[in-house]
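FAQ: What does the model actually see?

It sees only this:
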Amino acid sequence: MTLAPGRTCNVIVPVGALGAGVRAPDVARGIALGAHAIACDAGSTDSGPAYLATGKSKYSRDAVKTDLAILMRAQADAGIPLLIGSCGTSGCDMALDWMHDIAVEIARENGLSPSIALLYSEQKASLLEERAAAGAIMPLEPVGEILPGVFAACDHIVALMGPEPYIEALRGGADIVLGGRTTDTAVIAAVPLMMGAGAGAAWHAGKTSECGGLCTVRSRDGGVIVRVGADHFDVEPLAMSNACTTTTVSAHMLYENSDPFRLTEPGGVLDVGTARYDALDNRIVRVSGSVFESAPYTMKLEGASGGPFQTIMLVGIQDRGVLAEIPRFLTQMEEFFRSRLQATIGPRLGDYDVSLRAYGWNGVTGDAVEAAAPAPREIGLMFVATAATQQLATQIAKTCNPAFFHMPLNLDQELPSYAFPFSPAEIERGQVYEFRLNHVVRVNDPLELVRIRYPATEEVSHAEAE
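And it is asked to produce this:
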């Protein structure tokens, strides 16, 4: 299927992440402009491994429900498909079920009865072990060889889908497709590809609009609509107060991408090295000349698991003597902590860590500060204890508490009291998490690792992703 000459497939991308704030007037304007579909992303690994390891959503249920309700009502009124990728932040099965429960609740409250398809992309460790043994799983940099037991050690593993499962679900009669982990671009490119748009144009439109208004002059001022044709696409902000420029549109290839001209996706590589960016007016940009090069089909694997536990403490310090010699002060404090912990807890410490992060000095980077740097006005000093159990992490913090709050710069001075904002001082963070997989798996069929389900509108999963 190929789009007729001069025809386009028009997709509303209302927001960069479901739960970040959809504006109903913008969606209504997109529909008035002739939208054929609404599509957006709902997940990411940007905020770390915790959301995949736990299956919980980064965004609140209320925020997600508010956004999804706007989109579901618009879908019903316009009769166009709604596609949501990477549901519940991580896109694992329980996160997808959580999103589905919200959709069922919205449908019931608004008298809607859409046909909903669910695309599951969570993977079993045993299956991936078989694929790895067959040489079908390859690491991505900087990860090295596949370590024994790495799949079983993950709490959840997802494979990033391309557009094909969404197309299959739409052809199966779905009005709304809620997807597990998906590449940000694929969920937007799906309907244009299904309608016969050019692959280069569809994938580049998906990349450009993946974060909604981030490709516009006012990145927080609503989403965009992309009109995808056979050899080009146009991108226009949904808000009349906003605009796209050739710079804001072309620059988005740099976003979360190491190569500004090439982007690897399931089934190929988007090459924009010969792309042309033209302003059609003061708000709309046309992009042409993008190419999608087919390649063996692979799906990226993401896996995460829980690790040790942490307890933190905070103080604010304005002592001028300390601020003039922060490196010496911190080194002295860390040495005292280690000595005190060995003397009190001893071998029970096991594999533990204590760190100090001086915000206002080098708390963000941890890098050494040049000797000539002026003393800050104040620092916020954070103590972090990491240990095998929460109880042990807290005991470490409690043991270090007196020195953390009262250590002088010079040990023969009177004891100071630094400003602590909380009582009790010890704040239990709970378990910390880590990514364990950064690999791709080779598949023969884009659907072979995806499970598609068409539940009844009133069916709920009773998932807990918060």
